[in-house]
């Protein structure tokens, strides 16, 4: 089974492309979704996060206040790394488990939707690395307009990630999403053919 890494800076449209690939019938392992699942009420990862970042992050219903955790964790490089040190090993293990399940199910390929694929050097473990590329200013605009982040928060999150030139240098395929949404379809169609030929 081939592993296809799909990545892009925050706000690039990576999730949009992942949905399109899922619609094409590919199994998508979504690292962000796993990151949420490992912090469900009562999980050991959530307990550790609460110990480090504050017990008040967990509401009476046991749910994590993700927005507040993001504010605290992304406040500095050190605190970001602290959070990553707790969550990344758990995300990695669950991702591997899902790859194995896809292989067991006889999938020809699996898509790994992973924002930090290049930041963490995981692209080297993929058979194909796909980067969704959008200029930083446009990404910030989309995060503000469509996700309701304020500009400073959007820029801070962009700054926490690997820079665009490093990410693009790791790409086997670049999907250019600077244009309108309907410009994605032909690029995704070409990508689908490429994946099938792996
Ligand atoms: P990511 O997963 O890379 O953070 P998303 O796929 O969530 O990014 O896209 C960020 C936002 O921008 C979403 O609201 C999405 O609908 C929107 N978006 C994606 N591609 C385009 C595009 N080409 N033009 C305008 N908006 C877009």
UniProtKB/TrEMBL annotation:
Main location: cytoplasm
Subcellular location: Cytoplasm
InterPro entries the UniProt entry points to: Depp_CoAkinase, P-loop_NTPase
UniProt entry tagged with the keyword Nucleus: no
GO biological process: coenzyme A biosynthetic process
Domain of life the protein comes from: Bacteria
EC number: 2.7.1.24
The keyword Chloroplast is annotated on this UniProt entry: no
UniProt GO molecular function: ATP binding; dephospho-CoA kinase activity
Record's keyword terms, sorted: ATP-binding, Coenzyme A biosynthesis, Cytoplasm, Kinase, Nucleotide-binding, Transferase
Recorded GO CC terms: cytoplasm
Binding site for ATP: 11-16
PROSITE patterns: DPCK (PS51219)
Pathway assignment: Cofactor biosynthesis; coenzyme A biosynthesis; CoA from (R)-pantothenate: step 5/5
Recorded catalytic activity of this chain's protein: 3'-dephospho-CoA + ATP = ADP + CoA + H(+)
Any Pfam family the entry gives: CoaE
Role: Catalyzes the phosphorylation of the 3'-hydroxyl group of dephosphocoenzyme A to form coenzyme A.
Similarity comment: family membership: Belongs to the CoaE family.
Matches recorded under PANTHER family: BIFUNCTIONAL COENZYME A SYNTHASE-RELATED, DEPHOSPHO-COA KINASE-RELATED
Name the record gives this protein: Dephospho-CoA kinase
Protein source organism: Corynebacterium wankanglinii
